[in-house]
Amino acid sequence: MVDKNVGGRDRLARALLAALLTVAAIRSLRQGRRTVGMLASISALGFGINAVTCFCGLNRALGIDTTEE
Question: Is residue 69 very low, low, confident or very high in pLDDT (cuts 50, 70, 90)?
Answer without folding.
Answer: low
